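so the lab meeting is tmrw and i was supposed to have these ready like two days ago... anyway. pasting both below. for each one the top line is the aa sequence and the line under it is the structure tokens. i havent really looked at them closely yet so no promises
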Amino acid sequence: MNGVMTFDDTISAVATAIGEGGIGIVRLSGNRAIDIADQIFRGSTGKKKIADIPSFQAAYGSIADPDSGEAIDEAIVIVMRAPRSYTREDVVEVQCHGGPVPLQRILDITLRLGARLAEPGEYTKRAFLNGRLDLAQAEAVIDVIRSKTDASLKAAVSNLSGRLSDKIRSLRQEILTMIAHLEAAIDFPEDDIEEITAGNVSGSITIVRVELDRLLASAQTGRILREGLATVIIGRPNVGKSSLLNALLREKRAIVTDIPGTTRDIIEEYVNIRGIPLKIVDTAGIRETADIVEKIGVDKAREFVAKADLVLLILDSSAPLTPEDRTVLSLLPGREAIILVNKSDLPPVLDMDEVKSFVGDRPVLKISVLTGAGVDELEQTIADRVYSGQVTSGEAAFVNNVRHMNQIRQAGRHLGDALATIDAGMPLDCIAVDLKAAWEKLGEITGDTVGEDIIDQIFSQFCLGK
């Protein structure tokens, strides 16, 4: 989007989280933001008007109901005039005490004076429509808000700064250059020029496809950094599952006893492992049981294994494999897993050859959740498997969004179709059709060629006030 659009209405919303806090913010944006704020703000000297406050300077005073004159709260007001604001419109932020009552009272008054309650994500949507952010950067805003580790934050900030957008625009420009060469050859045909042009374009298409494949290779890591690695801890009862969760959390979150079946329900926590957010689940011990509640927990454990990105399967080094262990090991086929041989501080009894016959080439680590031995190695193994030799977040453009991944994949298919068209010796205009389709798909990532329905769907996922 280029330039600043003019919206007929002014929007208002509480921009801070629901609940009690030291500070709460009501944000106004639009052509009447300053006028509405002027009607409710009373400067500490009694003379200060919002219209007189320079941009990006704070003024102290109070907020009052303009009809009754009743003071509602002390406040600091900040004015950000268009186009140097988040939305590129006039923006006023009222910072008061962060209680739900004063915030709601102030919001209600702004609505009574002519503002409209902002829709979820509408401030960022206006920033996009007014050209301050492209669509990929706008989507990165919500990733910054939802970041759970430094690594996920770094990846989100990288995309917010435009690193992914710059890469996509560069690839679109390369495709556009190919299209221009094809159209020039179509408009000015000469002997053998079609064959030469098709050959040159074929090499350029291959180069762009390699770059798209590199972006797709980052998608799994990017998704994990954005959403968390769905990890499930499984094993027979009393093998150390809850103790492992506590060791990874560095706190006693799960109850640990010598009584089998202590964990009957599912315990779910986020764990920060070397900057990677693990959405980790401690399940009930898998065994045959007559206890109805425990049986439900066991069934849930099996369901989580089927959905998990990573399975941490625990065995007891100090005991031989039991039928229950073999039942747990039978769940491994088709699953990404790390095998943990716990209680390595005790004399070894477990037959490792039999274990390896079940686990194949999956990593097997000896640990002791009692002493902490092997936990650091486990964390490094998880990090290595997530990054899979790729650069870490912040060092390159990361695809961490399913929508972006789908558009890149579809663009790659269109480029593949273009190569097939060249190999079949078809006319140049047929090649151009495939290239234009790839160019448009990549444009949907940055918002250059996206429809209004997609835009509405994306911003509906944002929180109110952002």
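ok protien two:
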Amino acid sequence: MRSRPLSHGLAGLALAALLPLAACQSGSNPATDISRVDTAQGSAQNIGSLSSVIDRTPNEPEAYNMRGAAYGRAGRYQEALKDFDKAISLNPRSPNAYANRALIHRYMGNDQQALADYNQAISLDPNYDTAYIGRAEIYRLAGRSTDALADLERAIQLDTTDPRAYYRRGLLYQATGQHPFAIEDFAKAISLAPDQPYGYNGRGLSYLAQGDDENAFSDFNTAIRLDKDVAESWANQALVYEKRGDRAKAAKSYSRALQLDPDYIPARDGLARTRA
């Protein structure tokens, strides 16, 4: 797939209210990212099983790596860091352990430590797609779009099957109004992770920005069917209702989004508009 430059400006955004909603696409979901670190689940039972493995083989770095991933999925970040530190001390040549620790640092707001760990992972394995994808997210959230795009392009050139590479490149294109390219990338992310709502939400916003309400509405409804507990999906659905002039349905969907996330600003603002 050829590289495409990032244009400047927000040409192509058809609805002013899309701007705050598109901005909310810039966040990343810890549960989704952690699931890519390792297949280990964050349940107490699974953590207990991994702890038993460590008791039997206390010098096995991968056991700490796996339990660290499980702690990460459970939101127990300090314990995850300790396990990844131990895994690295036992095997300082493991790019996976550095990338895993970087992810936890990022969720704790330690961006410089995360960046250092991703750099180390890439120096150990220049073909490690996960590290490029993780580092790109730090760049993207810091506004370093060109650096983020370069890392995502590198991961895609390495034939990654990680949907985050396409989803996040889609966000970069979306933010600069390049919606046809964004839609293409979101579609690829959907093909790689059809059971996740995020690609549908991203593609729906780009459809809506192009005036394609029907496809946008279909994508938002699909996102809700896949996971009814994502506030963004309900707020996006409400945006279509609002654009159609159905304030009652829009208010209902915005209200549902706020029930799921009381701090979700686009839903709060949307509910104020539709109830005014």
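from a quick look at the 2nd one: DSSP finds 16 helices and no strands in the chain. Residues 2 and 153 are 9 Å apart (CA to CA). will dig more after coffe
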